[in-house]
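Notebook B, p. 112. Complex prediction, attempt 2.
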Amino acid sequence: MIQAIPQTQLPHVVIVGNGMVGHRLVDNLRAGAEANTLSITVISEETRLAYDRVRLSAHFDDDCPDLSLATADGYEEQGVHVAWGRATAVNRDSRTVNVTGKTGEQTLAYDALVFATGSFPFVPPTPGRDAAGCFVYRTLGDLDAIRTAAQDAKTGVVIGGGLLGLEAAGALRKLGLETHVVEFAPHPMPAQLDAEGGALLKRIIEDMGIGVHTSRATSEVSTDDAGRVTALVFADGSRLETDLVVFSAGIRPRDDLARACGLTVGERGGIQIDDRCVTSDPAVYAVGECALHGGWVYGLVAPGYAMAKVAAANLLADLGLSGPTDARFIGADMSTKLKLLGVEVGSFGDAKGQTPDARSVSLSDNVRGTYSKLVLSPDGTRVLGGLLVGDTARYGDLLDLALSGTPLTVPPETLIVPPLPGGEALPVSTNALVCSCENVRTNTLVSAIEGGCRDVAGLKKCTGAGTGCGGCVPSMHSLLQLELRRLGETVVNHICEHFPHSRQELFNLIRVKGHRTWDEVLGAHGTGLGCETCKPAVASILATLHNEYVLKAEHAPLQDTNDAFLANIQKNGTYSVVPRVPGGEITAEGLIAIGAVARKYGLSCKITGGQRIDLLGAQRDDLPAIWGDLIAAGFESGHAYGKSLRTVKSCVGSTWCRYGVQDSTGLAVRLELRYRGLRSPHKIKSGVSGCTRECAEARGKDFGVIATEKGWNLYVGGNGGVTPRHAVLLAADLDEETLIRTIDRFLMFYVRTADRLQRTSTWLENLEGGLDYLRGVIMDDTLGICADLDAAMARHVDSYFDEWAAALADPTSHARFRTFVNSDARDNGVQWVNERGQIRPASLHELIPLPMAGGDD
Amino acid sequence: MTLTLTPPSSEQTWTRVCAVHDILPGTGVCALVQGEQVAVFRVAGRVFALGNRDPFTGANVLARGLTGSKGDTLKVASPLLKHAFDLETGLSLDDPAVMVPTYAVRVEGGDVWIGSRG
């Protein structure tokens, strides 16, 4: 039976549709009227409640991503009723709406009705469009159907190169299909981009291996005898063979129900609303993609959210639940910032320069693969709009300049030149937009900090900023630090409660005083017994300075488990071993030897992201034997753990590649062997590419080297992870000796001056004077410390030894690898499940319950 | 090999697990006491015994945690997600609703003896 709607005297709002905007409306209504003052019912046609349609493609990254915005339990808690089914008729005279669901029909009486019915994908009337293998891209159901069809398909085509079309192309590519995009216009994203930006985007997408066919009109979907898609036929007679077609040619408002009950709709569709989001019937409202406002149907979620806010305020006022309001929807900015297929694209304001006499400045950077354009007022003093392709870091600031209409105080071209790390920040208005997803400005964040928020998590909770795409979190962090300083609060940089020093200060103290053990350091500078924060930090500093065996009795208690067991702990307490493969170069014999070790000890194998082979599931007791076997085969284990150099990735370079100009593998091997074992504030990764095609992804590393015709370019301060950064050019065309000397100094300077867990990228950003300063220190020796840095690195290189071999040779450390101090048993809590032919740790629910031994027996 | 001895008090069964010097100061070892995994720590001149299972992750790893102090409380931090536990009471320092069992400890003649669960 469909959930009964309680008979009540409370005013009753019925919302038709539970998409993102419908759900936001529920939230806004509930924020203004609690369950004992207003009854709310939502009609949901999909079998699940509102989900984040904007992130639909995440569905392909992860089998069950949590896209939910609403849950049945959550609605129940809020006192929101759900009618599962489709609204089939509205009677505006009796103020009722009929709902047909799986379990029958019901009639709901309303005091106010809101259409939040959204839109449906437009499928052009192309012959063959209904063939098996043709899809649209709108709901989770559509995605499931595409996924199923993709299992038997090799090629997929998306018709439509707009936002959603490119999104769909990304999804097809993730499903492993050879992917093509067909666009009628001369370039992708014609609604947002100009010819140059569109051409760059096309090139970037093509470089990803996606076919982009522009200026093409599809005249027919051809099919085989069984009625299955075989190809697209274009107006010029050419064909594109394919097994699967996704239509993404735009949206149309879902206004059929509104039309049927006599509400005013636009000529080209859309339920007509006024600034208060009220339709031609004062008791009926409409929000989101089904609504037509000022001649526009907005196909983006942000204007929908704005409408939901306005509709909620007016609805509550109209029902007498709040005082009068002047909430109005006055049109919305069509700005978009997206990450499509990994390419950042931003478009705001008058991006195409349609204002009469508008001027523009643009920067097309073929090296970085970016295009930026600003459209300026005729006198050149104000930003009217702009386009960003490839790098949207400044989107928020530039959008803000466009929205506020602030007169420029700097030459406009400086606004689109990429900043140098540590360089001057872009001058922006004092109340800049920080989070464009949730529309939160500086002032709001500052008030929250003044009101007591002391961390980013608190700011998120309090203001909503940073809860969308998360791109603004670093800005929030800086703003927080700045404000706390301004409020006169001490921003404590102490490493932990046991040492009143930062890591850098501690490093200098230990170096100058010549301490060699924890007891000396704690005795001279600390209090208490230390903890899991300061112990490994001191261990790392001691290791950097003296490079002694980490399991020496006086150092062993400081090591976090990975350094203590020279392997990487995994979720069930077993370890993984990653043999060092310098530069990723390995012989057939070596591969066989690693395979033999894995087979002998029952380990699961996985190729890592850093060109190594991870051997997972090693029991602690077996570690020494595993190392022994690897050493016998000519390997050492590798640092797959701890804060140290991980790998130097490389491509095959001039040795094999037809484009390579230098021996990148040879250099990578040399660098990895040179810096292996170097302990640092954060893990360090590197890469060497043999040409500017950058196949080793060197610019995503802490230091990256890219070959040129004349030598090597050195980039520093890149990283992957949550906040990826591209490394920036420190020096160009270096010979190999100069290159290595410069890297030596870069690493040593970083290791000595960075904070605990500070990556090279943030270290560089916080370095006063930025890249120029760094260049001065390590290339021109402006501080006169280069000889010292060189000597420190020479000491590291000379004192390197194979820690795993040392552990094997040290009889006292063997006992440390036993599971139990008093028994040869193994940990019976470690249980394995077979998955895809290898072991994996059993999840909690898969564990076989162990007998509770103890006092009873 | 496990030695079991019945001491004067009949409720408590004591098991000798190792010599004190088998535990490096500031670290822990894991002992098997009547089928249960017990993490035995030597910190600040004293010996402590807790259950070895980290209740936040379900893995038997506490003996491998880093020991230290928080104010006057002696603690061990689990090596997996760094949840800390009071060495004396077994109480979680992150979530007061969570605790690990503690065991009675005796050090006699340089040997560490663990009693049944306290």
